[in-house]
Amino acid sequence: MKIRLDTYLKAHLEESHSGARPRRNRDSQDREAVLADMLAEAEAAGDPMRYPNAKGRIGWRATPQLREYLKDLKADADADAEEEAM
Amino acid sequence: MLRYWSDRIAFTDQALKVNVERLEREWGKYQRSRDRNGIYRYLAAVFELITWWQHYNIAEMYARRAICLKEGRPVDHVPEPFAAIIQCTADPNKVDYRMRSKWSRALRYAFEFKRRKETLGAFMRRRGGINRCATKFARRLGRASSKAANSDLVK
Lengths: 86, 155
Description:
The complex is a heterodimer. Chain A contains 3 helices and 2 strands. By secondary structure, chain A is mainly α. Chain B starts with a helix and ends with a helix. Chain B has one domain. Chain B is mainly α. Classes of the chains: A mainly alpha, B mainly alpha.
């Protein structure tokens, strides 16, 4: 069964753990196990939080703090891109 | 039974600590904001944490653990989970026992009757606000309800 992640968190985990990113040719059990390890580590750092979703299942999403951090990074990157374009 | 990978991820003391800190920040945000609905954001954060604990039937254990972590020593009496987490995360000079108890009753009422898709704030506002939800809890689920049931039995 899939671990349910929001898009912010998924992007963050893929970026910060790119070395440990599970490959597509691994079987799904293996990928979920790697993802579970990443989440456990990230949860202790305060990046993701668990929440009950609308279907009554437990999903994972970025904490408000991580969202703010990612939004700030994106704003910085956009500003840099604009500067380069000029 | 643990069916999903997500269920197998242990919730460590460090994870508990960062979650409590997150709620403390929510409390701080509420205190700084002038938004009259700000309290719902704080209560929603408390509600969400306890709801996922309840999902795994670990709310009482982690509420106790949170209080012990906060106090830095074992604690004999721990209130029910909603009140315990409010006690850990809200300023005790601003939230006394009565207010904590009222919020906790309102949250327990929402836990029983709120539909999953509705936000906590929307639910509570629709039901007349925090005070009304707390009163309804007492009437529907609290001691008053068991007294009423007992008196029905006597009749």
